[in-house]
């Protein structure tokens, strides 16, 4: 009788221990899978962001300077011109790329050999690194380059492109759109393929034409993919760096001096890390606002 009680007690103790171990393993296993992502998040996001804030509040000798860097930054006519050039670039580039990408998506949404070939050709520039694309377009924008050769063939005189304050920024916009339109087109094609074909068939039976179906069916149901493309493209436009660094270096006359390149200059040319950090933090705040707008747009329910 005593042996039976002891055995039963031992079995119950083992069962409790096994249950506790299973619960502990179930709780710790997700943490082990998340550890690499958490380490990357802390090492590559949170710590650099903390360092950026600390540097932006420091003086040239490392002393605490409060908001002096931000006060100097927003009182500077140079930064005002940089901010104006950046906002102008974003305001022109994002609508242009979104409209062209949406038009290409409408043209290439159907599956056929010819459409697939054209879709691949439009998407090919995405595989070219931005630095290589900048060099190629820099050669095309030269006085004797391909762009002016094409203009002369239709009777238009050669254009200065990158050496003109009036044309340099739009020339960079064209170059970046050459890469961006094919990239954003892929997202929009995916959105178009998610629209049920039954809606178009019902609209056709009711006598709706292609323009009416586009306006009342396609655009409302594409609002979320379009919102994603617009916001993501805005972030990409704010972060543009390589073409400016390789082709114009902010010139001529500061017409292409975008914020990212100005941060680079402040840190590595003028060795003013606190001011560069303040400018980078300002850019980061703008990015956070854009991300909040993105979540706001993507969280809304689509309404017809």
In short:
By secondary structure, the protein is mainly α.
Q: Report mean pLDDT, rounded to a whole number.
A: 84
**Given this structure, which CATH class of the largest domain is correct?**
Mainly Alpha
Oligomeric state of shown chains: single chain
Give me the CATH superfamily of the largest domain: MetI-like
Q: Can you write the helix and strand succession as a string? A: HHHHHHHHHHHHH
DSSP strand tally: 0
What would you call the shape? globular
Keywords for this entry:
MetI-like fold, 304 residues, mainly alpha, 2 domains
Question: Would you kindly provide a written description of the structure presented here, covering whatever features stand out?
Answer:
With 304 residues, this protein is mainly α. 76% of the residues lie in helices and 0% in strands. Helix 3 packs antiparallel against helix 10. The radius of gyration is 28 Å and the shape is globular.
In terms of topology, how is this protein built?
Layout: H1 2-56, H2 68-75, H3 77-108, H4 113-123, H5 130-140, H6 146-153, H7 168-193, H8 197-205, H9 210-221, H10 223-238, H11 242-248, H12 259-268, H13 273-299
Helix pairs in contact: 1-13, 3-7, 3-10, 5-11, 7-10, 10-13, 12-13
């Amino acid at each position: 009788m005593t042996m039976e009680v002891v055995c039963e007690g031992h079995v119950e103790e083992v069962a409790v221990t096994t249950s506790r171990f299973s619960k502990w393993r179930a709780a710790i296993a997700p943490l082990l899978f998340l550890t690499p992502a958490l380490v990357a998040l802390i090492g590559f996001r949170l710590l650099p962001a903390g360092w950026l804030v600390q540097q932006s509040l420091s003086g040239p000798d490392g002393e605490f300077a409060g908001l002096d860097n931000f006060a100097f930054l927003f009182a500077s006519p140079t930064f005002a011109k940089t901010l104006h050039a950046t906002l102008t670039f974003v305001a022109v580039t994002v609508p242009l790329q979104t409209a062209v990408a949406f038009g290409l998506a409408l043209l290439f949404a159907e599956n056929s050999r010819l459409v697939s070939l054209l879709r691949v050709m439009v998407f090919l520039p995405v595989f070219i690194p931005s630095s290589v694309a900048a060099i190629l377009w820099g050669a095309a924008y030269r006085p004797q380059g391909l762009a002016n050769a094409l203009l002369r063939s239709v009777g238009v005189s050669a254009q200065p492109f990158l050496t003109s304050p009036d044309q340099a920024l739009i020339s960079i916009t064209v170059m970046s759109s050459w890469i961006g339109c094919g990239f954003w087109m892929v997202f929009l094609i995916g959105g178009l393929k998610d629209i049920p074909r039954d809606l178009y068939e019902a609209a056709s039976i009711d006598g709706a034409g292609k323009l009416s179906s586009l306006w009342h069916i396609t655009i409302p149901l594409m609002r979320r993919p379009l919102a994603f493309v617009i916001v993501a493209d805005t972030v990409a436009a704010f972060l543009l760096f390589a073409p400016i660094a390789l082709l114009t270096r902010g010139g001529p006359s500061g017409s292409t001096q975008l914020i990212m390149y100005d941060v680079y200059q402040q840190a590595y040319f003028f060795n003013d890390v606190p001011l560069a950090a303040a400018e980078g933090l300002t850019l980061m705040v703008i990015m956070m606002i854009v991300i909040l707008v993105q979540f706001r747009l993507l969280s809304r329910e689509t309404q017809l």
